Amino acid sequence: MIKNLTRRQVRPWLYTICVVSVLGIFAYTGTKRANAYETRFDAQQQRALSELGEYVDNIQLDLQKGVYSNTPPMIASLSASLWRDATGAKNSLSQLALSDITLEKTYKFLTQVGDFTVYLNRKVANNEEITQKERDLLFQMLDYSAELSENISALRTAVDNGEISPHNMPASQIKAKDSKEQPRTMSTNFVDMEQTMVDFPTLIYDGPFSDHILKKESKILKKEKGITKEEALKLASKYCNTEPKTFVKFEEEDGNIKSYVFSTKDKTVAITKNGGYLCYILGSQWASQATLSPEDAIERATAFLDTVGYKNMVSSYYTVVDGICTINFAYKTDDVICYTDLIKVSVSLSDGKIISFDARGFLINHEERSFSSPKISVENAKENLSHALTVESVRLTNIPTDRGTEKYCYEFKCKGVKNDDVLVYINCDSGNEEQILMLIYGDGGTLTK
Questions:
Q1: 167-183 per-residue burial string, b: 16 or more CB within 10 A, e: under 16
Q2: Any idea which fold 378-448 has?
Q3: pTM, to two decimals
């Protein structure tokens, strides 16, 4: 029968077979790419969770040692270790796909663990004794770190056993250990962990992240008029370049920066209730192979800041982690760089999209400032630098202090005797050294220490 078919009759069948074959190939390659993406994402999430567990375990161990230490060398060593591990824990936590929840108390705990021990180190170095009340706070921190460590260990075991998906898929799709149990997600577990931090004590001490500074009132927001939830939703949609209907969750934050908070499946956006400022964006997108340079990311971030209404911001330093470039911006006025008024922007190096944004430092600290001429000249200030330093550049800055105040300084960028880069801040009025920072360069960008 087929032999009797004409060429015209056979041609449609051949076209159909070709189309079906091509569609099948596309479907196969698409599925293969999706599976590869999911595998990479799961591996990144498991690695971040594993690193978080290791950092928290280290914090618990160092706190155990810290409650019994009393000499400056030991406290200095433990302080440096706790600061490093607390910072690492926060970085690992930020890489987990938990954009549908807020972990304010957990972040605050990790921040204060590092900062409080730095405060104790400074106190002992000044020949002051650690009080019993301060030791009691260390014991309380130890209790919280032990519980957090135990919870994260249990979560890691559940992820390894397949009881919880590392990419936080809906509960209905996750394999449960017992069919009678309610399946849980990563977010569910972290919400439970967050609740354990509810009674964490208020710390009043001389440190940059202590509660009395975190509760500082924003001067610019105080002057602004309030906006409605509907107005805030329009702004959130505009800044995220998405439709209002994509936001599936709504909350309100009533801390020192009162905000309307909207969430999509992979992003959380906060708009201030007064003034309608973009407060922060928390995203959990995964960056694939980098196609952009850090310089490209800075250009994208600068344009975004201008779009959302933050003017006169200049970039300082950046870091690159897993294809995400995070840039620090500071406000500039009258040729003075205000490091007090900070904004952080994270950009994907794969497609240039804004992954996260944090203007809380700016919103808390920003105010209209008037800087007078320095009381001492650049040349006089330079005389107070070490003879081991060679000055490469100088500019005027406004820097924050540990006590929550500000200092008007010359920033000298210098070369050391071992070719290391050093930033020295000399007070414009007194000529005293206010701060010395080392610039550290690596594959991930430039850091200060």
A1: bbeeeeebeeeeeeeeb
A2: Nuclear Transport Factor 2; Chain: A, (3.10.450)
A3: 0.61
